[in-house]
Design brief:
The complex is a heterotrimer. By secondary structure, chain A is α/β, with parallel strands linked by helices. In chain A, about 40% of the residues lie in helices and about 15% in strands. The longest helix of chain A is centred in the N-terminal third of the chain and has 19 residues. About 0% of the residues of chain A have low confidence. Chain B is an all-alpha fold. In chain B, helix 4 packs antiparallel against helix 6, helix 10 packs antiparallel against helix 16 and helix 18 runs antiparallel to helix 19. Chain B starts with 13 loop residues before the first helix and ends in a 5-residue tail after the last helix. The N terminus and C terminus of chain B are likely disordered. By secondary structure, chain C is an all-alpha fold. Chain C is built from 14 helices and no strands. Chain C is flat. Classes of the chains: A alpha/beta, B mainly alpha, C mainly alpha. The interface between B and C is large, with 116 and 108 residues.
Chain lengths: ~450, ~475, ~300
């Protein structure tokens, strides 16, 4: 009888399973900071739909705020339960289209044309991917982001903030720490690695250019020279430091450090930490103290950044597939992007935003943040992404950020010579290319 | 946390058990087959029929409801198997058995989904479970009919529905009480556990999920521990040894601290015992994510504790209690100390109870021998507490091996080890959590879980041996 | 220095010095207790102070990050007001209350049923069940979380509070040890005599055993009720990160301060949330502490 009851219950469960099939509304995931904005936009969209088609939009629409950093991972963990349209940074493309792809390609010609016309050149490359031998466009950029310099203007003058030398000078004069990093991953110390020669804009660094794994180069003379300067900066008594477990915001607030490299998402905490003393500008330049190989001492480099875009992706085999592209056409239009900047400080992924958008011209800290980001795009490259793995290829994984940090901090005094730095970068380059350390 | 086992179970070790298991298995199969045949031969027409159509025996004996339930079960089971309906896009039924072995063959393309290896594996396990249960139901259907046969032979009427229900409330009350619990345990504990053990033999990792198929790989993941350059082989021994060191110190500091605190509070002459006790119970009542996150922020490099130490002139530079990458022992010792804050109240409560219940005969005997208070304390109280709490000591050691919150909330494994997910303070369980939840390396996570199980199972086995040895001494001398 | 609480009738010879030394040792005991109390209450006090901290910087922004001083420069309930008006905290609180109310009823029923069966009823599979229960208990719980998620999904239950109740309660059958230890003490003779009077097993359970078991019922129910308020692991996976309106307090507060790109200016808000959660839980716990202590002692000592 016991067994009988058990089996009965299990069958009941099986029957319920087969019998039910839940139907949810059309769901859109956006960054939590702009949930209210996009909820309102979708109401407007429904009104427009009624106007154009002469009938109500036939389904419920639900806009949900999520952590954009993890949304793609959440989507992949259970894509059935995932949103029909969701936001993610472009560097998630690789994992999203792995295998048979979990996201649908863009096919609507109008939408493809809008993407082509509105987006900066840098973004057009990173929203495409190859599945089953064919290249498709998978994402629709709508927000851009780049790193900028936040600094405490009590200690650093506007002129000093233009060069790391000036900031270091201010740090020495006040006996503070020049710079706090936000974290230890490869994102946060990328300003050195990605720096370009100020005069020519050149760099020999290649990170998976055009999405090709082999198209990677990290051992050029200028790269080694930049890292040597980086080591000087990070080992200087008042130089840059990785963040303590208190976090960069506490270090800024307690005036332990006087500058910080961050993105738009750090703005609120930076503002709370520094109040009126907060100033924002583009990342500074630095001048080599030592040369290396072909690169001479005294060469000036402009700090670089990853120029990223947050983009909308569509669920593969969505029940609402027929409506999604039209919604995206609306949500990523120039007008909505500009409104989104005003309402939620989302930096537009629109190529002429700095000139065309009125909101950029205002004299607020927010406008400065936006302007600084837009200017940083001149010195930025998109974050790399991979086709096969959950990671952004191997830029962030397999310990490479740590290996680079080891050079910068000259851990254990093991990276004091040019040869040692080069040897470490050769290891890094091999991992970038293959995912494994050299034998 | 408290695991206890019945006395009668402790006699044989695993090995002997295994041997006897195989021996009896052979015998059982033989007798079972014979029994089955005899049952068929001796049964009534109804019973014979019930070998083919479930429930017919009961219907034959006019136990209609029971009979129809069996019949529905059979029809439902076969229907499910033959139709193999798609659940979340993956068939559940006969096809699941094939899928269980292939784990999917369709790689999909841009418009069509790939097979879902994960659901195929899961449904395979479910289907095997269902088959097992169906066989059990099949057997019970025959038995039930046979019982009715025998009742008739003995001149009784076959039991009615009413009697069946009544028996569920009396002689078969355990069935009624256990069934809901067992259903819950099978669905949400046994099934997932078996599934995750199987995952350890696949390549279900961050590169084989979503729209990418995964497959069986045998023992490759286990061999990776011993060879290879992956995270599991490099970090396994360091994490394992720290887990054991942590468990040892966490257990012993809490144990000693708890006993001392209990003695202090229960000391004769100390007033307001209840108030003191309540203060320490606060720690148990407060959710750990609150208290530990508070601790983490208090101890951070530029946090309040460091600022106090510095303003008192006790240190010039802030101490990196939890994040000193140069010396992982700073963080480790800090964690063990904070764990005292978390764990001591629990031991204190337990020992308080024991302290108040030391058999007075023991003291009377000591008094007759002319012992002083101090002697009585060290020769009676302490040994008595030790004796009583030995099983607790071992279960708490096991508990500490799998203690998650303290490490996860306090350091998250920091200070980190360059190049690897497992930091200097990560335990096996927090490592497992990071690998599965954060990194989607399910196969490696499963391997670690299995190893954790082996360790805790060994400790448990030892503990039962030990507690048995103690019990056989009969009484504390 | 340390003495026992056990009275020994015959006093030692050295009266005077004994009395003096006992006083000294008492003073020392109180001193130690006071010091320990400060250490134990220190983090709790700090959280409370943080939750009441209302400090603005020179630009008029609320400073929500961790600061290095203890006594706030400004006190107020702004964090609490923000918590209830600008976050989903009220929803989380109600969700948790709902989940824990259902969970504690279901869990208690399951735990007590299994414990009673294991303690007082004899049947063939009993030993097997005990062994399996012990083995299952040794696997790290969250190892199988992913599988549980997909089982719930196959049942069309994921991302609902009901699923969470189910998961919290379903395992309760395995946590029967403490209650079993308690039932073991109830003399079998009591049950035997009832049986002779013609009582069925279910009547014995309902009319004799349960009324005698108030402490253990309360202990089991208390732990089951508090569990959902503390768990942030299972709830996170089962409810899904994106369904913020479904979260429980622990998950909601966890996501407030964790995450890659979280706004770190919310520590005081988080502290306020902690205080709101802690007050009912701690009050409940302390008012029931007698039963909790009884359960702990019974569970740990009875072999």
């Amino acid at each position: 009888m016991k067994k009988l009851l058990m089996v009965m219950a299990l069958f009941l469960v099986a029957l319920v399973t087969v019998g039910c099939s839940g139907k949810g509304p059309l769901t859109i995931w956006v960054g939590s900071e702009s949930e209210a904005f996009y909820t309102q936009k979708m109401e407007e969209y429904k009104a427009l739909y009624l106007e154009e088609k002469g009938e109500e939009f036939p389904h419920d629409i639900r806009v949900v705020g999520v952590d954009t950093g993890t949304a793609a991972g959440t989507f992949l963990d259970d894509s059935d339960a995932g949103a029909d349209i969701f936001t993610a940074a472009h560097d998630n493309l690789g994992k999203l289209i792995a295998g048979a792809s979990a996201v649908a390609p863009v096919q609507n010609q109008a939408l493809l044309a809008q993407i082509q016309n509105d987006n900066p050149e840098t973004f057009l490359q990173v929203i495409k991917g190859t599945v089953g031998g064919t290249e498709y466009t998978f994402a629709v950029p709508y927000v851009a982001q780049a790193l900028v310099l936040y600094y405490n203007k009590q200690f650093i003058t506007e002129t000093q903030a233009q060069t790391w030398e000036g900031i270091l000078e201010a740090a020495v004069a006040n006996n503070k720490q020049a710079l706090s990093l936000a974290g230890t991953d490869g994102f946060n110390n990328s300003f050195i690695l990605l720096a370009t020669e100020a005069e020519t804009g050149n760099t020999s660094l290649r990170l998976y250019e055009n999405g090709i794994q082999e198209n990677t180069y990290g051992t050029g003379d200028d790269t080694i020279a930049k890292l040597k300067w980086g080591q000087y900066f990070f080992t200087h008594a008042n130089g840059a430091r990785r963040p303590s477990d208190s976090g960069w915001e506490v270090e800024l607030k307690n005036e332990i450090s006087i500058a910080f490299i961050g993105g738009a998402w750090h703005f609120s905490a930076a503002k709370a930490a520094l109040g009126d003393d907060l100033a924002i500008t583009i990342l500074p330049t630095f001048e080599l103290i030592d040369g290396y190989g072909e690169v001479e001492a005294g060469t000036v480099f402009q700090s670089g950044t990853f120029a990223d875009t947050k983009a909308f992706f569509m669920k593969k085999n969505s029940r609402y597939a027929e409506y999604l592209e039209d919604i995206l056409l609306f949500l990523t239009s120039k007008d909505v992007q500009e409104e989104s900047f005003v309402a939620a400080q989302n930096l537009p992924a629109y190529k002429n935003a700095a000139d065309e958008f009125a909101a950029f011209q205002e004299n607020t800290l927010e406008a400065k943040l936006a302007a600084a980001q837009v200017r940083m795009f001149e010195f930025g490259i998109p974050q790399p992404f991979g086709f096969q793995t959950r990671y952004n290829t191997y830029y962030y994984s397999k310990g490479t950020p740590d290996l680079i940090l080891e050079i910068l901090e000259n851990n254990g005094g093991n990276f004091g010579t040019d040869a040692q730095i080069l040897a470490q970068m050769q290891i890094v380059e091999t991992i970038w290319k293959t995912g494994n350390r050299p034998a | 946390m408290e695991q206890k086992i019945e006395k009668e179970d402790k006699k044989s070790g695993f090995l002997t058990r295994l041997l006897t298991f195989f021996k009896t298995l052979g015998l059982t199969i033989k007798t079972r087959c014979l029994k089955f045949y005899n049952r068929f031969k001796e049964g009534s027409t109804g019973t014979k029929l019930s070998h083919v159509i479930m429930g017919s025996g009961n219907i034959y004996h006019k136990q209609y409801l029971k009979g129809f339930v069996y019949l529905i079960l059979q029809v439902g089971f076969f229907a499910l198997f033959i139709i193999s309906p798609e659940v979340n896009g993956t068939p559940l039924g006969l096809k699941s058995i094939v899928n269980f072995f292939t784990l999917g063959t369709e790689p999909g393309d841009i418009f069509n989904p790939a097979d879902n290896s994960m659901l195929m594996l899961l449904f395979g396990v479910i289907v095997f479970g269902l088959i097992g249960m169906f066989l059990a139901a099949y057997n019970s259907n025959i038995k039930s009919s046979l019982k009715a046969d025998n009742d008739i032979k003995a001149g009784k009427k076959p039991t009615s529905l009413k009697e069946d229900i009544a028996s569920l409330l009396d002689e078969r009350f355990h069935v009624a009480l256990l069934t809901p619990a067992i259903i819950g345990i099978i669905t949400f504990t046994v099934l997932p556990t078996i599934f995750m053990i199987l995952i350890a033999f696949t390549n279900f990792d961050s590169e084989h999920q979503g729209q990418v198929l995964f497959n069986w790989v045998g023992f490759a993941n286990f061999l990776d521990i011993f060879s290879g350059t992956g995270e599991i082989s490099v970090r396994f021994l360091p994490v394992l040894s720290w887990t054991l060191i942590w468990a040892f110190f966490a257990t012993s500091t809490n144990y000693i601290g708890g006993i001392l605190l209990a003695i202090l509070i229960n000391k004769k002459g100390v007033k307001l015992k209840k108030m003191w006790r309540t203060i320490f119970i606060l720690t148990i009542a407060l959710p750990q994510f609150i208290s530990l996150l508070a601790m983490r922020n208090l101890l951070s490099t530029y946090g309040p504790i460091n600022s106090t130490l510095m303003s008192l002139g006790l240190t010039d530079a802030p101490i990196q209690f939890l994040a000193n990458a140069a010396n992982p022992w700073t963080a480790r010792i800090t964690i063990i100390v904070i764990n005292i804050w978390i764990g001591v109240p629990y031991t204190m409560l337990m020992t308080s109870g024991i302290l108040m219940n030391v058999p007075s005969e023991l003291y009377e005997a000591a008094q007759i021998d002319g012992a002083t208070k101090r002697q009585a304390f060290f020769n009676i109280t302490i040994p008595y507490i030790l004796f009583i709490t030995t099983p607790y000591l071992i279960t708490s050691f096991i508990g500490n091996i799998t203690s998650f919150n303290v490490i996860y909330l306090l350091t998250g494994g920091a200070p980190g080890v360059p190049g690897y997910k497992a930091g200097e303070t990560d335990l096996l369980v927090t490592w497992l959590y990071k690998l599965t939840i954060d990194e989607s390396e399910y196969n490696i996570g499963s391997v670690i879980a299995i190893i954790t199980f082996i360790i805790t199972a060994t400790a448990t086995l030892l503990s039962y041996r030990r507690s048995k040895a103690y019990k056989e001494e009969d009484a504390f001398q | 220095m340390i003495n026992t609480n056990v009275s020994i009738a015959k006093k030692p010879k050295k009266f005077k010095s004994a009395k003096a030394s006992r006083n000294i040792s008492l003073v020392l005991s109180y001193l130690t207790l006071v010091v320990l109390t400060i250490i134990w209450l220190y983090p709790i006090l700090w959280i409370i102070l943080s939750s009441l901290r209302v400090e603005y910087n020179n630009a008029g922004d609320l400073i929500g990050i961790v600061v290095s001083h203890y006594i706030p420069k400004g006190f107020g309930f702004d964090n609490f007001v923000n918590l209830f008006t600008n976050t989903l905290f009220p929803r989380w609180f109600l969700n948790t209350l709902l989940v824990s109310s259902v969970t504690f009823v279901l869990s208690t029923l399951l735990t007590l049923s299994v414990a009673y069966v294991m303690s007082k009823l004899k049947f063939s599979a009993r030993k097997k069940f005990l062994n399996i229960a012990i083995i299952l208990g040794l696997f790290p719980g969250f190892m199988s979380m992913i599988a549980i998620y997909y089982i719930l999904k196959a049942l069309q239950l994921t991302q609902t509070l009901f699923a969470l109740m189910l998961v919290y309660s379903a395992g309760a059958g395995l946590g029967f040890y403490v209650a079993k230890g308690f039932f073991d003490i109830i003399p079998n003779s009591l049950l035997e005599s009832a049986r002779l009077d013609g009582a069925t097993n279910s009547q014995i359970f309902a009319k004799i055993v349960l009324p005698l078991s108030k402490p253990i019922i309360i202990y089991t129910a208390l732990l089951a009720f508090i569990g959902p308020w503390m768990d942030f692991i299972f709830a996170r996976v089962i409810l899904g990160e994106t369904n913020r309106e479904l979260h429980t307090v622990a998950v909601g507060l966890y996501y407030m301060v964790y995450g890659e790109r979280v706004d770190s200016n919310v520590f005081t808000l988080f502290a306020a949330g902690c205080v709101v959660v802690a007050i009912p839980i701690v009050t409940l716990f302390l008012s029931m502490q007698r039963y909790y202590i009884e359960g702990v002692t019974a569970g740990a000592v009875k072999g």
